[in-house]
Amino acid sequence: MLFRSLYSNTKMRNDFMSLLSTVSEANVTKTTDEEKRNSINAEYAKVLLPLTSFFCFLGLLGLVGNSLVLCVYGKGKQLKNKNYRRYILCLALIDIVTCMSLIPAEAIKHRNYFSFEQDGLCKAKCFFNVFAAASASFCLLAIGFDRYCKVYYPLSKYKHLKSSSKLPWCICVCSLLLGVLIAVPSAIMCGTDESIMETSTGERTEVYLCGAASEYKYSIYRSVYRIGLCVLQAIVSIIMIAIYIRIGMKIKYHLRRISRGGTVPLDESDRINSFSFESKSRFASTNITLLCVVSLIYIITYAFYIGLSFVNIINMKPMTFAFFSLFFRLYFVQSVINPFLYAKMDQDFRDSCMKMFCFARKDDDNTSKRISKLFFSSPPQSVSL
Predict the structure, then answer these.
(1) Phi, psi (rounded to 5 degrees) for 346
(2) CB neighbours of 197 closer than 8 A, spacing ≥ 6?
(3) What pLDDT, in 10s, does the model give residues 225-264?
(4) CA-CA distance, 289 to 59, in Å (whole number)?
(5) b/e sequence 166-189, b meaning 16+ C-beta within 10 Å
(6) Non-local CB neighbours of 251 within 8 Å, separated by 6+ positions
(7) Across residues 184-194, what is the average pLDDT?
(8) What sections of the protein cross the membrane (predicted)?
(9) How many helices (H) and strands (E) does the chain have?
(10) Taking burial as the number of CB atoms within 10 A of a residue's CB, which of 12, 131, 161, 182 is the most buried?
């Protein structure tokens, strides 16, 4: 009986020691994996530091620039009767969302790129990525159609539609709502994903990335969704390119007619102004070029994003990963550069900015124009859209 009791106690003690050993080994393994992840994050964050600083600069610059766009196009008297300003306000709002959410999130993500365990933040980031892209594409498409109808059908029933200030706002709201609907599946199927990655010393460890959720990683629904986004983006891009090619051909035709002695106006309302038809046509061409450049920058930068989204970043070298991140997030530039394009190509925008910063009075228009000419070279009259 005594031997049986001793044997039982010894067995219990051995089982307890074995359990302690297992727990200790698990803790050591967990600590080791965490240390490895921290080492990987530190290595990549050091290489990504210039890009992180660049993104922070872009976010701050874009926030200031697009806030200025909201102030100028929202309150400028010269721009009150122009429908395209409503679309530009919508674009500026989308760009501000990008500068306040996506760009800071990406900069923070660079510090712990391979330890992203916040599932909710990952879903929010995926949502705003798709929302900003989809909303901007629909808004730019609406701008293209608006310009196309004005150039090709200036005297048709479209004239009565464009005189209504409610239609552009309705289109902008619809663009935002469509962007939300398209982005919701992205938020559902995104999440933190575990992968195996090698350190610089050749050791393997678990890393956590913001990407496809584990239950959707190999799902047919995710594949269909991604292909659908690519097809939608391609269709919108092709339509925008075709629209601006057609507009360019029409304006070129008008300018050729004018240079031969004809007077072919782009819009009957231009007769109210004292400008010549040739001057109005050339200024309209300048603003069409502005909107075309904005659309092309959007198409090119998001083409990089869509193409590189299929690349596997696991086991990329730090420097290669830095260049990948630069081109993958190149669309951030589109949210920052628009205010500079408006300042370069829209005289009314420049005049309003000069008045705002120089505190010019109503009778100081010539002063603000002289100041703007020091920084930008363009015709002195405003562009009519």
Answers:
(1) -120, 110
(2) 40, 114, 204, 205, 206, 207, 314, 315
(3) 999 999 998 899 899 888 888 887 887 777 777 666 555 4
(4) 26
(5) eebeebbeebbebbeebbebbbbb
(6) 151, 266, 281, 284, 285, 288
(7) 89
(8) 50-74, 86-107, 127-146, 167-188, 224-247, 288-314, 320-342
(9) 12, 2
(10) 131
Q: How far is CA 119 from CA 30, 78, 215, 257, 325, in A?
A: 20, 47, 13, 61, 21
Q: How many angstroms separate the Cα of 238 from the Cα of each of 143, 165, 295? A: 15, 28, 11
Q: What secondary structure, in 3-state letters, does 293-362 show?
A: HHHHHHHHHHHHHHHHCCCCCCCCCHHHHHHHHHHHCCCHHHHHHHHHHHHHHCHHHHHHHHHHHHCCCH
Q: Contact at 8 Å (CB) between 332 and 362? A: no
Domains of the chain: 40-342 (1.20.1070.10)
Distance of CA 33 to the CA centre of its chain: 35
pLDDT score of 36: 80
Q: Packing angle between helix 119-152 and helix 166-189, nearest 10 degrees?
A: 150
Write phi, then psi, for 208 (nearest 5 degrees).
Answer: -120, 120
The pair of three-digit structure tokens given for residue 383, joined into one six-digit string: 């562009």
User: Which tens digits make up the pLDDT trace of 164-174?
Assistant: 567 778 888 99
Of the CA atoms within 13 Å of residue 336, those in its CB half-sphere come to 19
- Please tell me the distance from the alpha carbon of residue 54 to that of residue 45, in angstroms, as a whole number: 14
In the numeric block, the tokens 């949210």 are attached to: 335
Tell if the pTM clears 0.85, that is, is over it.
no
